[in-house]
Amino acid sequence: MLTPKRLAATSAILLAAALALLHRPDPGARLAARRAALEPRAAADDIRVSPEETLELLYNPAARLRLLDLREENEFNLFHLPGARRVSLAALQLGPPAGLAREDTVVVVSNGEGRAREAWLLLAAAGFERIYVLRGGIHGWLAAFGRPDRIDPSLPACPLDDCRRYRFESALGDRHPESDPGPEALSGRAFERKVKVQGAQKRKSGSCG
Amino acid sequence: MFPLNLDGLGHAGVNALYVVTGFFFGFMLEQAGFGNSRKLASQFYLSDMRVLKVMFTAIITAMLLLFGLEVLGLVRPGALYINPTHLWPGIVGGLIFGVGFVIGGYCPGTSLVSMATLKLDGAFFVLGLSAGMVVFGETLGWFQAFFDASGAMGEVTLPQALGLPAGVVVLLVVLMAVGMFFVAERLEARFGPREKEPC
Q: Chain A contact for B140, CB < 8 A?
């Protein structure tokens, strides 16, 4: 006999089956198909930008810098770079974050480089081209601009240096002075520039006639 | 289209929306009988499985609606918040939560519902809950290493963890829920209160 309970259960199963048939694959599935082709590029050095270049880009509006932070929520709350937006690898596997434009310069950040490299692959599979990995991640940033005692050698390291090795007394996010040392921190430092800023490129190329 | 942008409501408007949503959530819990600790605790004696049935009905209803909106292109799944998985802290916390549930007869949300309906046991449970939150918050540093390193899997979804397409997982969860409802009703028939025989 078709009781209301049986009717509800049957409807739920049929609806789930219909939705399963109509669902399209997400970027995570697209990456699975393209991983072999993209991985050599993800391992190459030309996609890794130094903390110094990242700080310089922060102060260059023409760069349209977007910082995507792949760390855990508690790590992000503890310390993050100015204007950084926290996203998870799981969310990136479902689709790129809202508001991210193809012409933006995207620098992906994790504690070391592990999750950032995976995020690079996902964004590359989704069709983004101006994607970079922060060299050394937050550990690299703190080595460049942090207090010397920020890195705690007693905290365990893990593959690709992606486990947190820094300590902060308070979870102040981007209000720690080391988050934004200002452009003056770059004076006297030599560093390689890998990101081609679109506005600057136009000025260099002159007329197109 | 979704998640909805609430910026236009302003700070007070968003807070008012939270209060209204919370009120209706509490109202539905009360309607389901979850403001009564005896009814809640009886699921652990397999005599009244309404907690499992109501909660799993809510889970599969929300899951099917959300998945349906995604298939229709009305919600962008990447924009949704995914709770990070810390496996071992989750298991230990779940056990503590379960013991508290059996002893106190409430979980956090239902204790607030009970207190709102002026039940004394609910109010005491909320007092204990608040004390536990303060103690945990103040001693968090002691557990931080365990929290960081024990089974931290990040924000992982079931399809990612199982390596299956999302649609297949949705169907499996619905089938699991229906199977659980069937078993729950059998358990209730066996362990639940029997109707009195007419004299």
A: no
